[in-house]
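User: Predict the complex with adenosine-5'-triphosphate.
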Amino acid sequence: LLSTPLNPLQHDYTQAMQRSGGMLLKLLNDALDLARIEAGRLELEPSPFDPRQLLSEVAQLEQGLAHAKGLRFVLEMSDDLPAQWLGDALRIKQVLLNLANNALKFTEHGEVILRARRSADGLLCSISDTGPGISEASQARLFQRFEQADSPQRRVGSGLGLAICRELVDMMGGSIELESQLGHGSTFHVHMPLAEPAVAMPVDEFASGRHYRLLLVEDDPIVATVICGLLEREGHKVKHVGNGLAALGELAHAPFDAALLDLDLPGVDGFQIARLIRQREHAGQHLPLLAVTARSGNGDEAKARESGMDGFLRKPVSGEQLITALARVVPGTVASEELPA
Ligand SMILES: Nc1ncnc2c1ncn2[C@@H]1O[C@H](COP(=O)(O)OP(=O)(O)OP(=O)(O)O)[C@@H](O)[C@H]1O
Ligand SMILES: [Mg+2]
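Assistant: Here is the predicted structure with adenosine-5'-triphosphate placed in the model:
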């Protein structure tokens, strides 16, 4: 909606809806994360990642936020970071984003600096801001759930961010320390022990700027319209079908660069479709398959991969998430312009 013509009032309302939706989504995800941790069901999923890329992605997101607030966000990476580490990149990013978001949220003037360097056994990051600082009396308390200090920004959150950071870092065997004084800004130090892979392993390569011909298998017409819209806006061509049988029919008739599969479909479910697609492939053929699901269970991603899928996304998805996930699973492909419409 925001990328269509709107008058200024409509634009403001739509932005307010997007902000509120974003806040609800964050609250829900935070509450789910804590519930999972409490139930002992949150598991770290370590795989090789490039720390420089991860830190740059964090900085890129934060620079946008900082700019909107008239602040500066600086990333300082030391030269000794390894090319690869073994760790749960998603959760490491979640910790850094939470801390950097806080720093920007509570700071009105000045800058936020994210420093990253290697320690004897992993990654050492510090996030410093020129904000109001935190009194010694509040420091320990704020790492507990729902605890917030008095501040104008109190309503813009629920006090779960730091509690989640602490839980995640504990799971990694690391630590978070806070150094702050009222009126003199805050610095959060995070230490995360990480192993280095013995031999270099393939890290996700990001392909970008290509146009794909995609098959979307999704039974909910509203979700399908949204996903088609997000993909078409990026220049991709999308064929939408509502069930597995129709999907197999389409695949038999036209070439696709990738297929996006909902997992819960009437009749043949997404896992079965993936298996059927893989069974029909000849040697050397491999259609990239991306699961897009509303499920929140922990085991679904592993199950999707077992049934032959290459990527996994949870709904609701943003255009950016779709594009990144696709770029990860689609190797050098034929541009859609060269394919029959
Ligand atoms: N960089 C900071 N500068 C000043 N105060 C901070 C900073 N980071 C955290 N705080 C204080 O710690 C409290 C708890 O932070 P936490 O991230 O857990 O919650 P929140 O940001 O208020 O809400 P949520 O993260 O759930 O959206 C904040 O409400 C704020 O009072
Ligand atoms: Mg927070």
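The longest helix spans residues 8-38.
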